[in-house]
Write a structure and sequence with these properties.
The complex is a heterodimer of chains A (about 400) and B (about 90). Chain A has about 400 residues and is an alpha+beta fold. Chain A folds into 3 domains: about 160 residues, 2-Layer Sandwich (Beta-Lactamase), CATH 3.30.450; about 110 residues; about 100 residues, Arc Repressor Mutant, subunit A. In chain A, about 60% of the residues lie in helices and about 10% in strands. Chain A is built from 19 helices and 6 strands. Chain B is α+β, with helices and mostly antiparallel strands and about 90 residues long. Chain B has a single domain, classed as Histidine-containing Protein, Chain: A (2-Layer Sandwich), CATH 3.30.1340. In chain B, a hairpin with a 4-residue loop joins strand 2 and strand 3. Chain B is globular and about 30 Å long. The chains are: A alpha+beta (about 400), B alpha+beta (about 90). The interface between A and B is medium-sized, with 24 and 20 residues.
Chain lengths: ~400, ~90
């Protein structure tokens, strides 16, 4: 029999962070007790078959169970002498901050009365949102509580929604992929090397394959999926070729968001070209500055990403555990200019973009780039370009 | 098709109700005096209905379920009370 006090204590510990309920079942899935008013959650939500399959396959690891609307439970299994003794569910929760927001948006399609909407909204608001990493940690802890056995995150099983349909669909996907793998590898190598002939390789790849072959009945979605596959291949290859991972991942997330905002196939295609060009232009800089160490390259990316902040040498040095003196010296040796001058030049380059591409005032641009005052910005700009910010704007306006 | 209305009892076996709704041929609607009309075969519809289950007064006195066809009527009669028999 499972240790009642231990599981109750574990549940209490979880509830210090997230308000979730506990259900305790016998091995035949008959309910023992629960802290929730919803008695038989396994039957109510339709988890019976999934849990029975899990047990029938002899699997002892925790199971993450999810409904179609994004509510998630953790199922833990208590074993004694290799036989399942009890099943315990903790939940519900959402994974991902967007899930409850998306759910509330879907409710708009139901034209609920004020009374009903209020009840459902309160219920959704009460359900905690838990990061997936935390959920997996709780699953490991639940297993240990029940069985005194340590397991890994990779042991936790995510119950899939409809395995039979997936198997049937596999037969309908064309299995002709001749030549795709080798061309994909050539393309990835070009990304990794920052090879300027990548466009040729990309067009060869496009002529061999139009991407993911599964027909999902939505052509724009299909093109977005293809774009995200290409983005993933490109970003990982660039990291392999020396691009700072933090920068590559940030750019990856930026483009995923932009792809998802696209409404037409042509938008996706245009953005795809811009995405590859963006990664490749950065790879070109990396390859040209091959004598620059990864720490200094990384600090240059950091400066570019935080160009609107007041960046100190101390802050940059601390990132790598260097003293200010050592970092300054190393930066100057590898980049050929001191850190403050590099930061200033980057800010002035950014100011040129803002002057030519926006209607922001000189004061606003100066403030946004963390210059201490407008006069200082003005004098730095003039010293570098030979003309005032206003004169630059008149000559280069893109609006 | 003939429509049937059922009251929602104060003590309802939610698990059995879910099974019966899934087995029904046509859609089952939850309807309230305040204008709600929720299809119960969808997962989100069930979430809405089950989350309102804590307001028993509202469910019992100000709302009902609507089904279509004799077969579905017979299924739901197992756990619900028929109000009226409306013919189209």
């Amino acid at each position: 029999m499972y240790n009642k006090e231990k599981i109750a204590f574990f549940h209490e510990l979880i509830c210090t962070n997230y308000d979730m309920f506990l259900w305790n079942y016998r091995s035949d899935l008959s309910l023992i007790d629960t802290t929730s008013v919803d008695n038989d959650i396994i039957a109510d939500v339709g988890f019976t078959e999934k849990i029975q399959n899990h047990i029938a396959l002899g699997q002892s690891a925790p199971l993450i169970l999810e409904t179609q609307i994004g509510l998630v439970w953790i199922a833990g299994f208590a074993f004694e002498n290799h036989r399942i003794e009890s099943v315990h569910l903790i939940g519900p929760s959402f994974i991902g901050r967007d899930t409850p927001t998306n759910l509330l948006k879907k409710l708009n399609g139901y034209n609920l009365s004020v009374h009903s909407r209020s009840i459902v909204t309160k219920m959704i608001a009460k359900t905690p949102v838990i990061p997936s990493s935390t959920l997996f940690q709780y699953a490991i802890m639940l297993h240990y509580t029940l069985n005194n056995e340590k397991i890994l995150v990779s042991d936790v099983i995510y119950a899939t929604s409809d395995n039979e349909n997936i198997i049937n669909t596999m037969d309908e996907i064309p299995d002709e992929h001749n030549g795709i793998w080798i061309n994909e590898q050539k393309l990835c190598k070009m990304f990794e090397d920052g090879n300027p002939d990548y466009k040729k390789a990309l067009s060869i790849s496009s002529s061999i394959s139009s991407g993911v072959k599964a027909d999902i009945g939505d052509s724009v979605r299909k093109h977005k999926n293809n774009a995200i596959v290409l983005l993933t291949l490109c970003s990982r290859s660039c990291m392999k070729g020396g691009m700072d991972p933090s920068f590559a991942y940030n750019l990856n997330d930026y483009y995923i968001k932009r792809f998802e905002e696209c409404k037409l196939f042509s938008d996706v295609a245009k953005l795809c070209d811009a995405m590859v060009d963006d990664y490749m232009s950065h790879m070109k800089q990396i390859k040209e500055s091959a004598d620059v160490s990864s720490q200094i390259q990384s600090s240059c990316y950091y400066i570019k990403q935080h160009i609107h902040n007041d960046i100190s040498i101390r802050e940059l040095a601390d990132r790598y555990g260097y003293t200010e003196y050592y970092f300054s010296h190393k930066f100057k040796k590898e980049m050929g200019c001191n850190v403050n001058l590099y930061i200033l030049n980057e800010k002035l380059n950014q100011s040129k973009l803002l002057l030519s591409g926006t209607t922001q005032s000189i004061q606003e641009i100066s403030d946004s780039l963390a210059f201490c005052n407008r006069s200082y910005f003005y004098s730095c700009f003039r010293r570098q370009t030979g003309i005032s910010p206003n004169e630059y704007r008149k000559k280069n306006a893109q609006l | 098709m003939t429509e049937y209305l059922f009251t929602i009892p104060k003590a309802l076996d939610l698990t059995r109700m879910k099974q019966i709704v899934a087995a029904c041929e046509n859609e089952i609607y939850f309807e309230s005096e305040e204008g709600d009309r929720i299809a119960l075969k969808s997962t989100l519809g069930q979430l809405i209905f089950f989350s309102m289950f804590h307001d028993l007064e509202f469910l019992h006195t100000k709302s009902h379920l609507r089904c279509f066809g004799k077969k579905d009527k017979e299924r739901l009669s197992e756990i619900l009370t028929l109000i009226t028999d409306e013919s189209r």
